[in-house]
Design brief:
about 55 residues, mainly alpha, elongated
C-alpha cells in the first residue's frame, strides 16, 4: 500500500503484476506463475530496502 502512495505508477504496475500472476495460475502454468510471483516479491523487497534506507 505505501508503495502506491510513494512511487508513481506503482498501483498500476502492481495490479498488472497481480493480474499476470492470476492469469498464469488460471492457465495452470505453475512455472510462469512462480516466476512472476518471485519477480513481484523481489521488486517489493527492493522497494522496502530503499524505503528503509531513505
Amino acid at each position: 500500500m505505501w508503495r502506491g502512495v510513494t512511487e508513481q505508477g506503482a498501483v498500476d504496475r502492481t495490479l498488472s503484476e497481480h493480474r499476470a500472476i492470476a492469469e498464469a495460475i488460471a492457465a495452470h502454468d505453475s512455472a510462469l506463475a512462480t516466476s512472476l510471483a518471485t519477480a513481484h516479491v523481489a521488486g517489493v523487497e527492493r522497494w522496502l530496502r530503499q524505503a528503509a534506507n531513505a
